[in-house]
Specification:
Layout: H1 11-33, H2 42-52, H3 59-73, H4 83-92, E1 98-101, H5 105-114, E2 123-126, H6 127-130, H7 137-147, E3 155-158, H8 161-171, E4 174-178, E5 194-197, H9 200-205
Parallel strand pairs: 1-2, 3-4, 4-5
Helix pairs in contact: 1-2, 2-3
Length: 206
Amino acid sequence: FMKQHGAFYHARELQKKYIEFCRQEDLRLKKEKKHHFIEIDLAEVFRMLYEFKGVKADKALICETEVVFRLLSMDEMKMFRNASELLKQLRDDGKKVYLLSNAQAAFTEYEIRQLGIKELFDGICYSSDAGYRKPSERFFASLFDSYGLNKEESVMIGNDAFTDIGGAYGYGLDSIYIHTVQSGKRPKELPENCQEYENLTEILRD
């Protein structure tokens, strides 16, 4: 795909340069922000990859490259059981629903539109846009500040004990933990302000 747009790479060279530019961007942002949990924007990495081959890529080409990259590197994409039903139920009950995602905006925006759930969120914050990632308190703050949210009226639902639940605890936010295949090793203990559910179906029933 990149060769079609003038950036002539061999596979190993592309892999090497991709990793090199990711690390370069990571170090630059950590130094600039003086913070450990930063998030690079892969759009900048792909811009550098094109530039290295003498191609001045515009925003549209970079975005398209990111989507192609994501599609080629993904085995499957599907939602957790009852995810859309839970989102709809929360909205029907008058609740506001926000997505705080450690993800690249170019990837995830495309995917949630494909899944048909974009309209079920009242607001979305991607780590690639914020420049920080969970469990950073700065990332949580970016969501709460952007939408004028109140901690006492909010709860974080997540399946990662460190980034989701640990991040929520550090920010002073109640949470709900759901252990999934993607969660890794089950945590030995959870914060006292965290409630554990087996799955989304249980939340729906409760």
